[in-house]
Amino acid sequence: MDPKRSAQDVLRCHLCETPVPPLYCDTCSIHLCTTCGGEHLLDESTEHRVVPFKKRGCTSKCRKHSLKLCELYCAQCDIPICAQCVSSKEHHPHDVLDILNGIESKRNVLKNDLLELEKCIYPKYEEIASDIHLHKVNLNEKSQKLKTAIDKQGEDLHREINYIVTKLKSDLDEMDSNLLADLNRQEDEITCTISKITQSIADLKNLLNSKDVSLFFAHKSRNAEFKKMAPKLTVALPKFTAYMINKEQIYQQFGSLSALLVRPEEYGYTMDYPGADSSSLNRPLVDAPRTITEIYTFSQIVGYHFLCRVSCVNDQNIWIHHDDNMMRLYNLKGELVKSVQTKSGNRPTDIAVTRSGDLVYTDHDDRTVNIVKDTHIQTVIELQRWNPDCVSGSSTGDLLVVMDSDDRKQTKIVRYSGSSEKQSIQYNDIRQPLFSSRYNPKYICENRNLDICVSDCDASAVIVVNQAGKFRFTYTGPPSTTKESFSPRSITTDSQSRILIADLDNNCIHILDQDGQFLRFIESVISPMGLCVDSKDNLYAAEAYKCRVKKIQYCK
């Protein structure tokens, strides 16, 4: 290296060129030797901040008082401040530190953040990214296996169809053979009789030409015999009656694909920092469900006689509504937190809590869907020629609304993003209605696997479609017979994608897996009408006629 260039690169005092100056003025951004540093401070034209060179950059101009330097730090506000800020009492009684102490404290926070990012958070995300890459690599192989299984199922179905076709053709051949033999026998008999009739005709002609009178009187007529022998030919040819192909039943019997759902927690990772989501915990069913608490609602005091719905805000508060125009928020002690009256004064048809924690309700008579924010009610959906029935929030923040037409002959589900319609679900693949068209409400919820579950009490069934609106299955009751017919009302799902259905007339709750297989009953409820679960999969069941909500633990 050039010695001259090296000498030029040495830091020097900006005022006297003394090499390696030990001081620095943060105000003027210049290097100073010890002698010049003292003289520099005597300049009263501005407020200088001369510090050791290693501590340069520790001061800055105050945001509020531009002519002042920040020599202090407010711990509560987390900002540097000047002496004038302190004297204004704006930061009273906050902890005010020397700026250097504040910087050191902030530096420690940054170090801790860096350490956590490097040692904990980043490796976890790298691990997840690595697993995603492996899943992407294996996706084609797994997809090919599924396609092979689908092809095999298709081959089995084709084999069964080919067997049916072959069997029908074989049966037809046998029927043809039997019928042909019968026709041949009848043909032989008719031919023989025709020969006899022909002979009789010839004999009669000869007799008429004869002069022998004795032959006339010797003749015996055979006409009566031939009339009696004449058969009534009835031929019943085979017929083939083609039944209408029910595509829905074919889909049900053939098989279905479960919806693909990829979420980071499903890889089994739990972040080692506050706020980590624990919803991926496995929660099997307990042997015997138990009631944790009972919440007696306001209705028992004022005399309302029917508890309709319940919806969890969080693990401490629930919204309910009775057969009046009020919606009430209760805590788990049974204390009324607040009440909200519907905008129109009508009784709400259904209530639900959105992903953001706001209350949403439907007003069938007013044709509106409304959101309650604190005590303000905002109408987000106004319908024409359709009336909103039940409502549910979705994992994407959309609203799923069941609605029926004015003539009550049609029912459909519409997905809304804000006030915009995104999706309509009404028919299956062969244009048959998925839901009954009678008046009773059809309760709705979205499952964790993004299936849409609808409780149709008029049809005594629960209908489940996938996220795209394609039919998956129908549940019409348990394998064992209940005392009364299946009477589904409210429906909800838990973190394990299990489906829970309130059975009003049988005083129980059905639990299904995500594919509609019956798992068990919860029988400790009377006339359950409304259902919801909290973040820990505790079940809240609204007993309609007793006007109380039971909190039930049914899984671990």
TrEMBL record:
InterPro entries given in the database record:
6-blade_b-propeller_TolB-like, NHL_repeat, TRIM45/56/19-like, Znf_B-box
Domain named B box-type: which ranges?
A: 8-53, 62-99
NHL repeat placement: 487-515
Q: Which UniProt keywords apply?
A: Metal-binding, Repeat, Zinc, Zinc-finger
PROSITE patterns per UniProt: NHL (PS51125), ZF_BBOX (PS50119)
- List the Gene3D superfamilies: Classic Zinc Finger, TolB, C-terminal domain
PANTHER family found in the cross-reference section: BONUS, ISOFORM C-RELATED, MEIOTIC P26, ISOFORM F
The identity of this protein, by name, is B box-type domain-containing protein
